[in-house]
From TrEMBL:
PROSITE patterns: HTH_TETR_2 (PS50977). Keywords: DNA-binding. Pfam families: TetR_C_3 (PF08362), TetR_N (PF00440). GO terms for biological process: negative regulation of DNA-templated transcription. One of its GO terms (molecular function) is DNA-binding transcription factor activity. Residues 13-73 form the HTH tetR-type domain. This is TetR family transcriptional regulator. It comes from Actibacterium atlanticum.
Length: 206
């Protein structure tokens, strides 16, 4: 007889959310190796034994965060519609990635740190579900190229360029603000205007 998992109580949901939010702060600041359960528990306002009631290890917390990040990031790519207007579909994806960089900078830095260390916790996902999704959408883009709906662009490198041009604003936030000479101000309106113009020219068939 299969046991039905009981839904979390309100306090369990609250503590789980507090742990993940605290861990996101700690991991994005110190990296996975430099972070400790004591730091996370202290940041969450919980005792270490209480934290371990919800997550058995630092690895489990890290994995839960990465899974949540990838779910958030994969959804806009999955929503690219083969039957939609190519430029609109790609531009919608660009803007969703820019919004993610603006709204989830800690998540972006956590993900970047994971990749820089060889993706030990998510390599199977990168090689499996994520690669399958990117392959699927690259085939859609290639179809648009083949039918002359967009410029002759390499679909994978187009996707890579979108990642690089948007996530940079989260991963290198301090550099962006200092270089612009507008530290403390919002660089995203200017980034949106620039990227819209850039991709409009890039995607236009010759």
């Amino acid at each position: 007889m299969t046991q039905t998992r009981q839904p979390k109580t309100r306090i369990q949901q609250k503590n789980t959310s507090a742990i993940l939010d605290a861990a996101l702060d700690v991991f994005s600041q110190y990296g996975f190796r430099g972070s400790t359960l004591d730091q996370i528990a202290d940041k969450a306002g919980l005792s270490k034994p209480n934290l371990l009631y919800y997550f058995p290890s630092k690895d489990a917390i890290h994995a839960a965060l990465l899974e949540r990040i990838l779910d958030t990031w994969d959804e806009p790519l999955a929503q690219i519609d083969p039957d939609g207007d190519p430029e609109e579909e790609i531009m919608r994806y660009v803007m969703s990635k820019l919004e993610a960089a603006r709204d989830y900078p800690r998540e972006s830095r956590l993900f970047a740190n994971e990749i820089l260390h060889g993706a030990p916790n998510i390599k199977s996902l990168l090689e499996g579900e994520i690669k399958d999704l990117v392959d699927e959408k690259a085939a859609v883009i290639q179809g648009w190229v083949d039918t002359g709906k967009i410029a002759d662009l390499h679909p994978y490198h187009l996707i890579f360029s979108i990642w690089a041009l948007t996530q940079n604003y989260a991963d290198f936030d301090v550099q962006v603000r200092v270089t612009l000479g507008e530290e403390g101000q919002d660089p995203f309106p200017g980034a949106e205007t620039f990227l819209r113009g850039l991709f409009h020219k890039l995607l236009r068939p010759s």
